[in-house]
Amino acid sequence: MNSTKAERTHVWRNYFTMIFRAGLPWVLMAVCFLLSLGAAQLALVFANQVADALSPRNNLSDATGPLLAAFLIGMAIVLLKVVGAHLQGIVTAKVDRNLQRYAVERVFYLKTADVESGDPRELITRLTEDTTKNSPFLVDLMINEIPRLYYLIVATVQVAGIGRPILTLTLLGVIPVVFLGSFVSGRITFKIRNKIQTKIAALTARLAEKINHAETIKAYGTEDKEIATGDAVIMELDKAKKQGALVDQTNAFIKNLMWFLPLLLIIIPPAVLLFNGEINQAGFYAYILIATTFRTYTAQHLDLWVFLKDAQGATLRLSGLLSKESEKSDKPAKIPSPGDIEFSDVSFAYGDHPALCNVSFTAEQGKKTALVGLSGSGKSTALNLIEKFYDPSAGRILLDGKDIHDMDYEGYRSLFTYLPQNAPGFAGTVRDMLNYCAPTPYDDKTLSEVLKTVGLGDDFEPLGGLEYEIGDGGERLSGGQRQKLGVARLLLCDTPYVLMDEATSALDVEATADLQEAIDKAMAGRTLLTVAHDLTTVKNADRILVFNQGRIEAIGTHGELLQTSPTYRLLWKEVQAA
Fold it and tell me: pLDDT digits over 353-372, tens only?
């Protein structure tokens, strides 16, 4: 119960933080507000003008002027509403865009652990769908609410001026009827629709997971099994969407009911007064027109309430994202001084699974340090901690004697080039991949030369050269080509520190040797920390750290470790036997 209250407490704070940090088109919103206010004022004038035009006249010519004036006022109302609706559509689109930009920025500056705590496919749903549920409420509230309230107040004063209390009471009676419908509809939308949207997002993520792993499914011959599973998910999606349709139809019924009941309240009392001669035709016409628009404006609060509950539900789902700590600093990035990298009794765990335990070592500036060990021994985790993807649960990591925890993320990471094992690529061309980390694009000659250096000089020429499209995630590349392109991009970067994680694992012996020679040549004088399974690539390392079950078993050169480390000897035997 306490967590639910805490969530509700943070929802609106997160909502308004998002709104104002995202940035709103204030000038265009002000124009829309004035158009809406002008339409409300003209609606009041129109009712009185029509009543005057339809009052008893001596002849038709006496009514021509008032009727023409009423027509022109009516056309002006239509014009204001049409232009206002068009501009509000533009405002809504801009607000959606700005909110999505803000939310996406928040995601990319989240800590890695926070990003990995949820399903990325569901996160995409939050960014693309939930952000768009905030703008209808925001736009309607800031543009139309004050004009509506203005009309309701002035209309009530004018009706009271007719001198028939029953008409004033009837007019005001419209409000509780409509707001009762608004409340019921809003509760349905918030509670049930929120559950349905969450279920749809989870089911969509499950379906996407199957499609994203189509190769694995084919390899194991489980197509029929996954088709059956996918069919079950689709049936659940269909059920959830039918539930959503039922909610929508319920809301539609309430809206229609809230249209019909106030209409009876508006028509019957003034009709009785007119038949009894207690009001004249002019008063009757004025009341009907004012009360009809009064009902319309009041009914629009139903939509505002539904928008409100939609926004609340969407913001509640986004609140976990919006409230997490951002790595982005408002201050200019401060680049720290290079120096030795030191682990001092560092421990780290992925949830309940320990990865490192009291690890201490120093990677000297300008030297090559290798991290080796059996799978799952903590090597890659050490690189992730150096990159500040995660924070140690105990101990400290120092750069030039200073704790990296206190350093600005952007400035600190600008010192590093990181090449993970899978060397990921994004959709685009070979040129795009090579220029991914470049402040300014490299010329084609430089790119062609680096491709030759990594052994890709002839691979792409028949396919379009630098313009070859590598596909989503580099899917049109082989594992070896992807790694070579990753190394090529690394060679183009000139940061003082380079982190490599199994950078040549997908290559054969000859290609590995050639690529390692190019890497060592480019890394001369720079600080290189490399995780390696193939010990031949790190024989020449200045220091080799042997990891075993989250701890460092031994530190030394290749020759020293062959004498002192059982794990290193085992790894070396595996390399020789391969």
Answer: 899 999 999 999 999 999 99
